[in-house]
Amino acid sequence: MKLKSIVLPVLTALFGIAAAFAADNARPNIVFILADDIGYGDWSCYGATKVKTPNLDRLAAQGRRFTDAHSPSAVCTPTRYAFMTGEYAWRKPGTGILPGTAALIVEPGRVTVPSLLKQAGYTTGVVGKWHLGLGAQSPTDYNGEIKPGPLEIGFDYAWLLPATGDRTPCVWIENHRVVGLDPADPIKLDYTVQRGQPESFVNGIPRIGRQIGGKAALWKDDEIADLLTKKAVAFIEKNKAKPFFLYFATHDIHVPRVPHPRFRGTSQAGVRGDVIQEFDGTIGEIMTALDRLKLADNTLLIVTSDNGGVIDTNGPDEVNAGTVETNNGHLQNGVLRGTKGSPYEGGTRVPFIARWPGHVQTGTSDALICHVDMLATAAALTGQKLTADAGPDSFNILPALLGEKRDQPCRDHLVEHGNVLALRKGQWKLIPASAGGGKNKKGKTRKPTVAELYNLADDIAETKNVAGQHPETVKEMSALLQEVREKGRSRP
């Protein structure tokens, strides 16, 4: 009796410790939200004053806001490829900005973020902009079963906008088929037609490529954000009882910018600002759904962008689509130099917020991280080991997300992919000289003609080229960039 009185409390305590440990190490749901063309200065929690983003501000207050997070590329398709595979897209030919007729560029069978998480017991889904190609060969045939696609590289469910909002086809795809397609009105695409030509207009908006047929399946541009949000919430609701991974790639704020009427005119930065606020509304809906389903505490929620911001003018009409004048002084990339497509910080430094209550430390982090790191991070989070050939450029940044103290950074260097390859290492940023440098017909610099070195610790806007004062740093970083290029991998 005496032994029992001693053993039972001890066992109870041990079981309690084990249960607490298990709860602490429970696999979280993962929701990765990738905005389109949102820049470093586009949210009020990153300094914007002409647009209001209360939901993102609340998320930042509840989570960790990163100030040195980067997209793997300064444009969309290569960023999405690198996020999915853990490999810099510039290593693989054919990963540039794709037309809507491109075949799938991620090889079925390779390790991807969704296939890795599926192996760990997650139900995986993608909702939103795909832009990684569809089908086995180009041009994609949209009139029957469309495969391979997301389901062949690790996703259990897909609801897709195939390419971009300004590229044909302007239809939804669910898993392997176009939604609502009338077989008597098949889809034909003609990518010899340039945006702005009379044949390029769909729903009154100029697109890249002509779409013939598929009229019953056309999306409605001002309903895209609401429909994608509805599909994302439905996926969460359906899979609430088991671990899930949702990759939610919004159309906002890519052109054409056609916000729902309830958002039009709500910002002080024209229609571009309006769709930023529409995006913030989407984030609010996701957060509300997680709260309503009591999933917020066990969900790692990440919100970021696929590249830096840009002012461009494709929409129902050129004036309302977004111009310097309608932007009204709003700085889409804050103080950063450059925009989408450039090798400067404004091309790839993007907002990035992570929340996982009780695990992700609240506050601000200046850790250097990148979307290409999501594969290795997902492996660490789920206790899996990457094979030697998987994710060649993906670093485990879980300690940075959680806010753990470390003697060494999770990642000590990063290749920034703009119209040339640049290198970040610590406070330094190197943009090598390019043989193709000079000015284009409009007088804008195409590529640097001399090596550029910036000390971002005191010159984040990249205004002072100090390459001449630090030749050894230029030499050292040039050698490292060359090594990363030639070695074929950068992951330790």
Question: Would you mind describing this structure in some detail?
Answer:
This protein has 492 residues and is α/β, with parallel strands linked by helices. The chain has helices at residues 2-24, 54-62, 76-85, 113-119, 224-238, 270-292, 324-327, 345-348, 374-381, 398-402, 471-487; strands at 29-35, 64-66, 69-70, 123-129, 157-161, 173-174, 177-178, 188-190, 201-202, 205-206, 210-212, 244-249, 299-305, 352-355, 363-365, 369-370, 413-417, 421-425, 428-431, 438-439, 445-447, 452-455. It has a 10-stranded mixed beta sheet, sandwiched between helices. Helix 2 packs across helix 6 (270-292) and helix 5 packs parallel to helix 6. The longest helix is centred in the N-terminal third of the chain and has 23 residues, at 2-24. The chain is globular.
Estimate the mean pLDDT confidence.
Answer: 92
Distance between the termini: 57 Å
CATH class wording of the largest domain = Alpha Beta
CATH topology of the largest domain: Alkaline Phosphatase, subunit A
How many E strands?
22
Strand order, largest beta sheet: 7-6-5-4-12-1-13-14-2-15
Going by helix content, strand content and strand pairing, the class is alpha/beta
- Weakly predicted, low-confidence segments: 1-24, 437-443
The fourth-level CATH homologous superfamily of the largest domain is Alkaline Phosphatase, subunit A
How many domains make up the coordinates? 2
- Relative helix content: 25-40%
Total of helices: 11
Largest sheet: 10 strands, mixed
Approximate shape: globular
Beta-strand percentage range: 15-25%
